[in-house]
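[User]
If only I could read backbone structure tokens as easily as an amino acid sequence. I have put the entry right below:
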Amino acid sequence: MKISSWDTNLKIRLTGETLFNLLYWMYFPFVTVYFSQALGNHIAGILMTIPPLISILGNIVGGNFADRLGRRFVMLIGASIQTIMFCFFALSNSHWLNYLAFIGIGLGGALYGPASAAMVADLTPQQEGKQVFAIFITAKNIGAVLGPALGAVFFFHYRSELLWTCTIVMLLYSIVIYLKIHETMPNYSKQQVNLKLIPNLFKKEWKGYGAIFRDKIFVLYILGGAFAVITIMQLDLYLAIYVSKYVPLQNLLAWNNWSYSLNSNEILGWMLGLNGLLFVIFVMPVTKWLKKWTDRNVFILSAILAGVGMFLVGLTTNIWILFLLTIIFTFGEIIRAPVIDNFVSDYAPENARGKYMGASRLQFTFGRFLAPLTVFLSEWISPIGVFSVILFFALISGLLYIKLYKIYDSSKAGQTSEISKSSSLD
């Protein structure tokens, strides 16, 4: 599905979200450092555990409202909250008020996300879903590659200017959503956007999500994804500690009497850069190569590549082997990315797509919440022991996906059988 043939909604959102993601990665990786310097490591560590909880609330509320009030309306609310909070962050001189603004930015993004994903699903034919989601992921990771390099300068030296730029970009994007984006929710009517109904929606919300969490297939999907996220998140957690602590200064290149060396922190930086660069370059080709693969096989292969790649890191300190293993576990992450939302798009009922998209994001929240366990364990067990735990998490993810699709395929086969019987009776 070529971009030129996309609906106008998708073209606008691809442009807006690409620009915002670039700005996002210019400040997000440095926020923890900022609060650590201002409030101390202990307080900052506690404060950074709260955003995932806010994400749970935002994703659940955003997904439910997207199905009841419309995708466009919820996206506009989320973008507007981010605009206001960026402005608040830029104006404030209090670290505590800045933290509240940071929480607000995360809440706005959490509200926006499920509605945005549901809109993509609404406008994309099922057979083209993976490719379209892959393009959005590619755009996101362009920001992940370029943003930190720029943010290392702008966040610490021109933070006010950076935050005002984010404010202006989000304000313009909010205006474009209001003027140019059209609603895509099936069976939508303008009467649904009634702010007086919002308090009643909160009351109904948990009842609706109760039905989702009684859905055995979807619960297995969230659990499988959470264990996968635990593995993938180690690039920023225990793998970073391992490289910084155990990988020595060594030559990257050497020729006669000339050599170019990297220390442990520089090697880690190269690994992070390689991870982001591979995403940008290969998300689209890999999605195309695996187009005929089932989502089941992609999820399982992803778990194996990510888990084995991470585990083998614990057996070496050689710079070139570490780069090779970075490629292996990054491909485990790459092949999984486009099928995450594609599964939900295919599985969720049309009238509850936003709600399921919101619930789907809990896998990232749970995964990020549990991922630091490896850092905690590293105080008592050896590096190879920690990497064995990481491999164990990845294998659990693969087994959960196997069980998930065994049940899912059986249920689809049963539905097909029932339809055939009904047709024969007619």
